[in-house]
Design goal:
The protein is α/β, with parallel strands linked by helices. Helices cover about 20% and strands about 30% of the residues. The chain has a single domain, classed as Alpha-Beta Barrel (fumarase). The protein is globular and about 45 Å long.
């Protein structure tokens, strides 16, 4: 773990993923995709049916259900959702190439095992910091599952989103 803050831009190469260690503080920039429980189920079902709605390979999913934007704003509050709610879907998606997950709270052992097997990382966002994360969003676009309301997938472009590496791709964790 380094005392400095690492600036990271998505998508991440394997060497960049290797360089991240549990406890590293980072400022993340690039494209992330919001998705919660209902969207995870729908996406996983579509992939298993052989008709994927979206290619997860190399992507970053932020466990977040943003609130609607006020007039003249890009997005409403966009704090993290409890990650454990996605643990039933995460190992499968990691196996399909998902590289970065962002959320809050601990992860199940099967998620950590998949991260080690396929080389993914889990980044921790601070619960209750929706206004802070809102200020990092420079663009907000709908992607799919609009009928799910706040659980729809959205593509967010973020700049210097403050996060911590909760679990690195070797399975080291700050959450023990």
């Amino acid at each position: 773990m380094s005392d400095s803050v690492k600036k990271i831009t998505l998508p991440l190469s394997d060497s960049q993923l290797d360089s991240l260690e549990a406890g590293d503080r980072i400022l993340l920039s690039g494209e992330i995709y919001t998705l919660r429980d209902a969207g995870h189920k729908r996406l996983t079902d579509s992939i298993k049916a052989g008709k994927p709605d979206w290619d997860v390979n190399g992507k970053a999913i932020y466990y977040c259900g943003p609130t609607p934007a006020a007039k003249g704003e890009i997005i409403g509050s966009c704090g993290p959702t409890t990650s454990a709610r996605m643990d039933d879907y995460a190992p499968f998606l990691i196996g399909k190439g998902l590289k970065v997950m962002i959320g809050k709270g601990k992860r199940d052992a099967k998620v950590v095992n998949a991260m080690k097997a396929y080389g993914a990382v889990y980044l921790i966002a601070v619960g209750g910091a929706g206004a802070l994360y809102k200020a990092c969003v420079t663009k907000n676009e709908p992607v799919m599952y609009e009928d799910l309301g706040c659980e729809a997938m959205r593509k967010l472009t973020v700049k210097d989103m403050p996060l911590m590496v909760g679990i690195d791709r070797r399975g080291n964790s700050v959450l023990n």
